[in-house]
Fold:
Amino acid sequence: MDRPSIIHKDLAKQRQTPNWTAFEDERRRFSWQFAHLATQRLPGGGINMGIEAVDRHAAGVLRYHVALRFLSRTLPAIEISFAELARLTNRFANVLQGLGVGKGDHLFLLAGRIPELYVALLGALKNGTVVTPLFSAFGPEPIATRIQLGAGQVLLTTDHLYQRKVCQIRAQMPTLRHVLLVAEDGGVTHETDTLDLATLMRDASDCFEVSETSEDDPALLFFTSGTTGTPKGALHVHGAAVAHEATGRYALDLHAQDRYWCTADPGWVTGATYGIIAPLLHGVTTLVDREEFDAERWYTLLEQEQITVWYTAPTAIRMLMKAGPELARSHCYPALRFIASVGEPLNPEAVWWGQEVLGLPIHDNWWQTETGGIMIANTPAFDIKPGSMGRPLPGIDAFIVKHMEAEGEPPRVRIIEAPNVEGELALKSGWPSMFRGYLNNEARYAKCFAGDLYLTGDLARVDADGYFWFIGRADDVIKSAGHLIGPFEVESVLMEHPAVAEAGVIGKPDPMVGEVVKAFVSLKAGYEAGEALRLEISAHARKRLGAAVAPKEIAFLAVLPRTRSGKIMRRLLKARELGLPEGDTSTLESGA
Ligand code: AMP
Structure:
């Protein structure tokens, strides 16, 4: 069907007056100093993300307002008001203090969407303890790697996850002093060398003296993947709360009376930032569904929970589209007024599907772990061009740049002024949620900057109206169902299998999840390629990496294409897989 290239915003038809309506004016007026006024300072002048998100409301009119509402198929709903959340997070902060865990120490969280995870994350922030949520579908390998890199002192997990994934790798994590366990059936945990969280929480005090954190003190550590080497720990600070508040206002249009649902898991940066921090900063009621994706359930929740603002992802939207419009139309959504999506390209059809089936367009927005918050977005303040990521938010300056440096030199770039020219997306440094470093990896951090421009690693173009259009990644990282996967991490685990001589991993385009992880392996002498071995290697990868990261497809090759310096040419593997031109192969080792 031919559709217009623009969806016009009609203020008169909006279900609620948006937070902003004049793009240019707001950008001109905006300053980050001014945005700081939306937060409350600590008495000593510092800022603490946990206090901003919870205690500020617990001490005000929103005290008895529901902050978090947890739903599952089998358990009764659990609601936690801001006042209760303040008490619980104080208790957790006291638990940490009691264990000698303080400011700057590292807590890792490995759990599903359970209340204890939310309480722990916020309580740790109040204690000045740096928090890293891990995806609960990770296998033992990604868990151990991240805890080692982050030198985690404390891990909070559930008894089931501990038995399945942590027990076996505990010896590999020598910095880990305490493991706090949540009993998933609500009882007491009985593992040895662990502590029962419920018992500690019961015995802890409700009162806590917040840690005096400054805007530059580390708060959250999120791991992200690069093309080579181990995952990178991107460090974020307490002052990032200023950006979380501002972007929640501009890109998600949050208002205090909203009933908000972010479908991202808190084990990833979106689920922690926009599933916990940003909505709490705005005093909204956040729905947390503990179940996995189910189209019928999701429509029922949108309707029955009277969700007003919904933040989801392209893979989920495509799965809903696949379930058919009849299912969507068998429910009605009179409360719903704003839908946004992030994490991977959102096809124009998906934006239109929202408009035609749910009565609202879907607002694509763009950001990444390093930026700590939404940077470019379709917002209530201007028309949507379906297929575009939108325009830079107030306080954000985005450019398309071309690299000028010679091989091996530090980045040097030129800004491309002309519209619609492809280049790397770059952002002018200086917004509060920008990452402050890759943990213990100054060199990798330095490579992300050319002067005061942060280089995102994404290829894009900007049109004459200032809308940005995503083109692809400049590197080999894989985006599957919105999750960033580093090929190196997968290749390393494949290489552990005794039959595997070499491994190369690519993202293979997939109509549903964006890309699936596909591995190419060559075998050591004495091993025969065949279905039995393929299944064995696949099972090994799933066991070590977890289902979310392990390859979905494995192919055998006699030899993998390498450069003369010995690097696997993933670009070539991908081109061959897709039947695309092979490009420059001058560095290819002969015979590959
Ligand atoms: P992560 O750091 O895991 O959040 O992944 C960030 C990456 O996801 C970005 O650098 C992009 O490659 C991709 N991404 C995020 N949002 C979008 C979007 N709206 N459109 C296209 N790609 C996106």
Q: What stands out?
A: Residues 224, 269, 342-345, 364-366, 368-369, 389, 456, 458, 470, 473, 479, 484 surround adenosine monophosphate (CB under 6 Å). The CA atoms of residues 127 and 211 lie 5 Å apart. The chain has a mean pLDDT of 95. The longest helix spans residues 82-98.
